[in-house]
Amino acid sequence: MATTRRIFNHLAIGCTTASLLALTAGAALAEPLEVAAIYTVPVEQQWVSRIHKALNAAAERGDITYTFSENVSNTDYERVMREYAEQGVDLVFGEVFGVERAAREVAKDYPEVAWVMGSSFGPEEPNFSVFDNYIQECSYLTGLVAGAKSESKLIGLVGGYPIPEVNRLMHAFMDGAREIDPEIRFLVTFIGSWYDPPKAKEAAFAMIDAGADVMYAERYGVSDAAVERDVYAIGNVIDTADEYPGSILASAIWHMEPTVDRAIEKVQAGAYEAENYGPLSHMPVGGCSIAEMDDELVDPEVQALVREREAEIMAGTFEVEINDDEPVSSAR
After folding, report:
1. Cα 137–Cα 140–Cα 141 angle in degrees, nearest 5
2. Least enclosed by CB within 10 Å: which of 76, 221, 256, 281?
3. 214 vs 182: CA distance, rounded Å
4. How far is CA 65 from the centre of its chain?
5. Beta-ladder partners of 114
6. Residue 300, H or E segment
């Protein structure tokens, strides 16, 4: 790895082979990994913010040094990947949904670098690992809350793109709502952007005008519309209850720490390999949770049902169905 190369460059030429190996091992343990991240959106965007948070935590522990590039366009992504690799970083995080083929080719050119990328496809040997926010279990739980709260029995969902990772969260949410009332209907739209709050807000307004009284905020901007029109919202990936007091019923929170920590440990141990980190976003391993709910917004019996289902998920006795198909509106 790049870390090992740096250590060798600083060793005295006259060291014996035995002392060389000993010094290398000791320095490798002490020296933090050089980690970079490449984001196509601002670090404030909810999905990216969770990766950013986990990497900052690792940096604060002293496990890594951390640098990042944000707002990188798809056309520029390959260049930025190569720049970090040429700088000798050990580990790179990012998202390659729009640049899958090019990103994988870059990874092949730099086999000494560990790549851990958000992706809709599988890992690729020798060094290209994948992940995403597979938090469908927590999304199901928030659906229970939404289904119990909706009086119009019409719920709106605004997403970025209909890719499998988004689709499965929406389907899980809808399944949770239908557990409460099988007759609940849904309005679904995708705005064709990962970060366009004004566009998401306008899409939400249209659904609220059509009668939706609870909104699934997969994108930023939806909760703003909910506040302005005095309806409720469900958070996704991050908890924005403090930002929208009195409006956020529940939020499915993604925890990227299990993924980040595993990748760091693998590289540090010299045991990194291409693998699918997606399961590390599941609830039983600490990859997601449901945020604390407001007693004034969510009835105690609904909260009790959420905790019951949560316990069943943790115990493996309740399984949330995974459906990667594009969700469609069911409202008539």
Report:
1. 95
2. 76
3. 16
4. 21
5. 91
6. helix 300-315
Q: Can you give the length of the chain in residues?
A: 332
CA distance 205 to 189: 12
In the chain, the percentage of residues whose pLDDT exceeds 70 is 90
pLDDT of residue 195: 86
Intervals of CATH 3.40.50.2300 along the chain: 2-132+256-282, 136-254+286-315
Distance CA 60, CA 254 (A): 20
d(CA 162, CA 190): 7
Q: Which amino acid is at 132?
A: D
The burial class, CB within 10 Å (0-12 / 13-18 / 19+), for 209 is exposed
Which CATH architecture group holds 136-254+286-315? 3-Layer(aba) Sandwich (3.40)
Cα–Cα separations (whole angstroms), residue 6 to 9, 32, 272, 307: 5, 12, 18, 50
Burial of 20 (0-12, 13-18, 19+ CB in 10 A): middle
2-132+256-282 architecture in CATH?
Answer: 3-Layer(aba) Sandwich (3.40)
